[in-house]
From TrEMBL:
Belongs to the glycosyl hydrolase 43 family. Pfam families: Glyco_hydro_43. One of its GO terms (molecular function) is hydrolase activity, hydrolyzing O-glycosyl compounds. InterPro entries: GH43_arabinanases, Glyco_hydro_43, Glyco_hydro_beta-prop_sf. GO terms for biological process: carbohydrate metabolic process. Pathway: Glycan metabolism; L-arabinan degradation. PANTHER family: ARABINAN ENDO-1,5-ALPHA-L-ARABINOSIDASE (PTHR43301), ARABINAN ENDO-1,5-ALPHA-L-ARABINOSIDASE A-RELATED (PTHR43301:SF3). The keyword Hydrolase applies. This is Family 43 glycosylhydrolase. Transmembrane segments: none annotated. Keywords: Glycosidase, Hydrolase.
Amino acid sequence: MRQESLAMRRAREREYGKDSTWYFQFKYAPVTGLGYEEGIHRRDPSSVIKIGEVYYVWYTKSSGSSVGYDTGDLDAKVWPWDWSEIWYATSDDGVNWHEQGLAVGRGEPGAYDDRSVFTPEVLAHNGKYYLVYQVVKHPYLRRSKEYIGLAQSSSPDGPWVKADEPILSPACNGEWFGEVDNRHLVKHRGDFDSHKTNDPCLFFYKDQFWLYYKGYPMGEQLTCAGRETKWGVAVADRPEGPYTKSVYNPITNSGHETLLWPYKGGMAALLTTDGPERNTIQFAQDGLQFEIQAFIEHPPEAGGPFRTEHSDIHPLEGLRWGLSHEINSPWHYIQRFEVDERTKHLCNNKCNH
Ligand code: AAL
């Protein structure tokens, strides 16, 4: 008599056989203006927004190679996103980009953002523009905490006015063990975001400002599913805050850079890179309780989607195309991704024969 294997039971209980509405693949294409350039890193693009007939994107830009933490030189560039600035570019077609210049630079020595500003995201709301991004204070050590900053402007071309202090901070309930700069040694780990708050993504949602972000704990360990990154969300009445972290945090058990888009009153998300549910598309009708909708191959890294105004017409409308980064080369650069639903047609053709 046929029996159900454990694997098939798991698939049935977790509804892995759901329909393919949210399933698709990605294809990639080079862009001009933000592509590979010797000596320069361009990475972590924001979402793409369209103002009039022009597309805009913001991104991390830095120059020179990074050398890690162990040089003994506190000024040495430790990561490609260290000693970075936020630059922006425009395009008429989403493929050919023109770098326009600096949007947000580092703060004066002693400021909360004097070491690096990077990984921006943009929100256009009520005639104003908001950039949210990561900030690090000098010196950049393994145990440095990472915060979220905000700058606002009445024009996408700036000038940008920074908030006086970060708008989001790591939880302060962890405790390091000893004085050595080792981020794995802790007395208490604290919350999932006790070490770093990264990858902000800001929405005006349900009449409030929802700031999704990625957190790392102090004392991070490697698990059977890789690194321990998870996402949280914090909500405020004004873009500048104060932000209150959700009681449901962390709201994902996986994921690296945040990528979300609205769909029929809820939030869809692409989780990549880390954790047991990496490379999945998830959906939460209330923006908080996410469930897997599809398993994805080769998702974009640090993708910034172009979200159309008509995101409700199809689940994938909020990420038909966008920009992502490519980091498997000495100098990081930006490329274009597109949703590719060809597999569905192939499958349907096959099934019909
Ligand atoms: C990225 C993002 C954040 C991290 C680093 C730069 O892809 O997750 O921005 O801090 O890597």
